[in-house]
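S1.2 Input.
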Amino acid sequence: MNNNSGGYVITADISSIKNIVCDEVWQITRSSKNISGAIWMHALAPSPGLYNRFLNEWKDKPGEEWWHIYKELFEQELKTQIKLDALRRLQSLVKSGKVIALVCFCGDSRYCHRTLVGDSLKHNGIRVDEFIKEKSKNNDVEQLTLF
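S1.3 Output.
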């Protein structure tokens, strides 16, 4: 799908994967559950410690209560060598014109590490778009957009 105007990154939840047009899909999850056609890139997932803290302390609580803590901790993780190496690889692919989708299991991108990965990429001049499923106002049929 090489894009003449340059590559970019799409972030999305895994349920949207079949609706995304891209060169590669990177599954940035702790789980290696095989998602057909996706490359498992656990280096861009939260560490086991942060993921377990989310499960044990915050999972069923409103994001407003815990997100600021999670965000700070994950942003620190993004500075580790394994995550920096994965980010550099991703940036290199995007700069070569590739469109890469980053997907995970989180339904709400406002409280998700994929958004933080995307923010890090944006800070380095990479275009990042969240893939959003929209419901039509006329009926309950879902309509998809990249805005």
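S1.4 Remarks. DSSP finds four helices and seven strands in the chain.
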